[in-house]
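Subject: D-glycero-beta-D-manno-heptose 1-phosphate adenylyltransferase structure
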Amino acid sequence: MLKWKSQGEKVVFTNGCFDILHLGHIDYLEKAKSLGSKLVVGLNDNPSVKRLKGEERPINDENARARMLAALAFVDGVTLFSEDTPKELITYLIPDILVKGSDYDLSNIIGADIVLANGGEVKTIDLVEGYSTTNLIQKLK
């Protein structure tokens, strides 16, 4: 990523569990990529998904989730993180643009302060209504 930035690429960063990839994820990631020239996805590792989402999660392990994300044409990089939030990763990467879903307010986006302090931008993307991993799991039950 540092090489990309030194080459003038505009690096976009987002993060999440991406446990069961669905239309909402695809739409969100595609829109995130359109904000810059490179998209890096911070992916919660298995233990952090379990802490955040409960004992029955993740459905797909971190290797499967990372590989699926990496296979998407608009994802340029995937990196795992083990903390409950991506703050350390954002501090290390310092992306040009930090993106989260519009269900977040700027005041509660982890790492926004770091990105803004380094001249970057923080943006939100509207989510596709009715699509979430939790909804999919409920339908399967």
